[in-house]
Amino acid sequence: MKSTYKTKAREVIILYLKKHPEQRLTAREIYEAVCNSEVEVNRTTIYRNLDRLCETGELMRFKEPNRDAWYYQYSAEHDHCDKHMHAQCSVCGKVFHLDKPFVEAFNAGMLEEYGIDISPVDTIILGKCSKCRRIKK
To answer: For domain 1-77, which CATH number applies: 3.40.50.261, 2.30.29.30, 1.10.443.10, 1.10.10.10?
Structure first.
């Protein structure tokens, strides 16, 4: 694995994402926010750093159905994000880390009932969180 350089751009990206731990953000949103900092960063640097941060497990990357953009969320404080499933609110975008017993039971049920072996790292369950369900439209 390549060594990771601690650049100013990387630090600014991580700092911004740490300030928004419950949000999923596109590379464009991250770029626009980071451009307002005193560190000069171009789009290529943003994408390169996002890719590296995903490789090291510091970020999660999600692709929503019917959307072209990838979404990123800070995950370094959640152990083994690549070992468990996530649920995401379809309204606010908040991501929930699902506990291992739930994932194991869900996986076993899918395998037994449908013959499907779920890949936890690639699985996101979509729904409305309790906060968004309380909001009336």
So the answer is: 1.10.10.10
Q: Which two tokens stand for residue 96?
A: 């929930």
SS3 call for 60 = strand
Angle value at C-alpha 47, between 119 and 51, nearest 5 degrees: 35
Q: Which residue has tokens 């999660």?
A: 60
Domain map (residue ranges) of the chain: 1-77, 80-137
pLDDT in tens, 29-65: 999 988 877 778 889 999 999 999 888 878 888 776 6
Q: How far apart are CA 95 and CA 51, in angstroms?
A: 19
- Topology (CATH level 3) of domain 80-137: Dna Ligase; domain 1 (3.30.1490)
136 CB contacts (<8 Å, ≥6 apart)?
Answer: none
Q: pTM higher than 0.85, yes or no?
A: no
